[in-house]
Design brief:
By secondary structure, this protein is α/β, with parallel strands linked by helices. The protein is 42% helix and 17% strand. The strands form 4 sheets. It has a 7-stranded parallel sheet with strand order 3-2-1-4-5-6-11, sandwiched between helices. The protein has a 4-stranded mixed sheet with strand order 8-15-14-13. The radius of gyration is 22 Å and the shape is globular. The termini are far apart. Bound molecules: NADP nicotinamide-adenine-dinucleotide phosphate and guanosine-5'-diphosphate-alpha-D-mannose. NADP nicotinamide-adenine-dinucleotide phosphate binds next to helix 1 and strand 5.
Length: 363
């Protein structure tokens, strides 16, 4: 039987890497897209037009669209990656977050059941280390109690439990990957890592003066997204449906990430002050290039995520340290140094073209 994957969230960071991974394995890949007033498909632009890659309009908040699409595509595997995935935004849009991140999971499960595919279609749910939230133990593994600490995490907790419920009630092959933070050069620009690497590149090239951040002490277990999508697939190839923690097992603070990113951008930082008054100073110039702003503090923040990937290592044969923290930061900074330089050239060319057109009109 041909492997047919349906990916929700195909335009996102993980969706784009997973599409590449599955296409390379010979899958037919179908992805869900939403209509937008601007072009937002840059992460998958290079895949459009490939014979095995298909895009369909649907929405996680629209049951009918999901039922119809699942019936049409007849997937053998569904990867449910679609979500309002920004924790801070979930405080501003909690109802939307719950609709997409919680009830959306139920809609996918019901779309599979409505089309009588529950014994032939496996489902991967993009669960998250945010479930551990106000953590009750470190490091966190599959048996650590959950304590969600944001509207996003509470919505994702529903997704986790409804997957487990359908697995037990209807004998479906559906599993959650409890993924710790994973980043890349395709990471959304408002997540802290990408915000830092882009700012470091801009500051190094004289395009920005200062980067404003929130909690610098927050600890994360950061991996490389490209390595993590393999795990999503491995979880569905396992002989029985189970949930897995996917993490590197190594923790760093936001401050450490920033120090390294600026170093790779050619700026040595020294830190002075504490809390809201803390500053990152460029040692070479004495200028403040990183400052703290209360705008980026959250009503409740998750500050100590540290995953234990032993089960994934032993049962899936996955290597959690394929890309080290240092390599990850280096990849992201190198990409953003090039991007900032290219944006500058494109900007100069736009100005030159504008001047030329104005000059021609005035002749
Ligand atoms: P991302 O870059 O923010 O991508 C989210 C995707 O969801 C986008 O394709 C987005 O489409 C889509 N989406 C949002 N609302 C939708 C809706 N109503 N209907 C259909 N599609 C919708 O997220 P990511 O980093 O790739 O993460 C993928 C998944 O893993 C998410 O569920 C996230 O919560 C979870 N997760 C991520 C991490 C991490 O560190 N990256 C860790 C643990 C879990 P548009 O492009 O149209 O907005
Ligand atoms: N975004 C952001 N912006 N975060 C900041 C900033 C800032 O300026 N300054 C400090 N932080 C801190 C946040 O308070 C948080 O403790 C940490 O940096 C990481 O924030 P994000 O990069 O926004 O990611 P996240 O951990 O909240 O959520 C991501 O990872 C989850 C897995 O643990 C998202 O990808 C979620 O979708 C995912 O589930």
């Amino acid at each position: 039987m041909k492997n047919v994957a349906l990916i929700t969230g195909v335009t996102g960071q993980d969706g784009s890497y997973l599409s590449e991974f599955l296409l390379a394995k010979g899958y037919d890949v179908h992805g869900i897209i939403r209509r937008s007033s601007v072009d937002y498909r840059e992460r998958i632009a290079h895949l459009e037009g490939k014979p095995n890659f298909h895009l369909h309009y649907a929405d996680m908040s629209d049951s009918m669209s999901l039922v119809k699409l699942v019936g049409q595509v007849q997937p053998t595997e569904i990867y449910n990656l679609a979500a309002q995935s920004h924790v801070q935004v979930s405080f501003d849009a909690p109802e939307f977050t719950a609709d997409v991140d919680a009830v959306g999971v139920l809609r996918i499960l019901e779309a599979v059941r409505t089309n009588h595919l529950e014994q032939t279609c496996k489902i991967y749910q993009a669960s998250t280390s945010e479930l551990y939230g106000k953590v009750e133990e470190v490091p966190q593994n599959e048996n650590t109690p959950f304590h969600p600490y944001s509207p996003y995490a509470v919505a994702k907790l529903y997704g986790f439990w409804i997957i487990k419920e359908y697995r037990e009630a209807y004998n479906m092959f559906c599993c959650s990957g409890i993924l710790f933070n994973h980043e890349s050069e395709r990471r959304g620009e408002t997540f802290v890592t990408r915000k830092i690497t882009l700012a470091a590149a801009r500051i190094a090239q004289g395009k920005q003066d200062c980067l404003y951040l929130g909690n610098l002490d927050s600890l994360r277990d950061w991996g490389y997204a490209k390595d993590y999508v393999e795990c999503m697939w491995l979880i569905l190839q396992h002989d029985k449906p189970e949930d897995f923690v996917i993490a590197t097992g190594v923790q760093h603070t936001v401050r450490e990430f920033a120090t390294l990113a600026f170093k790779y951008a050619g700026i040595e930082l020294k830190w002075e002050g504490e809390g809201i008054d803390e500053k990152g100073i460029n040692v070479a110039t004495g200028k403040v290039v990183v400052a703290v702003s209360p705008d980026f503090y959250r009503p409740t923040d998750v500050v100590n995520l540290w995953g234990d990937p032993t089960k994934a290592k032993n049962e899936l044969g996955w290597n959690p340290q394929t890309t080290s923290f240092e390599e990850l930061v280096k990849i992201m900074v190198a990409h953003d140094m090039q991007k900032v330089a290219a944006d500058h050239v494109a900007g100069v060319m736009r100005i030159n073209l504008q001047e030329y057109l104005e000059h021609r009109e005035n002749r």
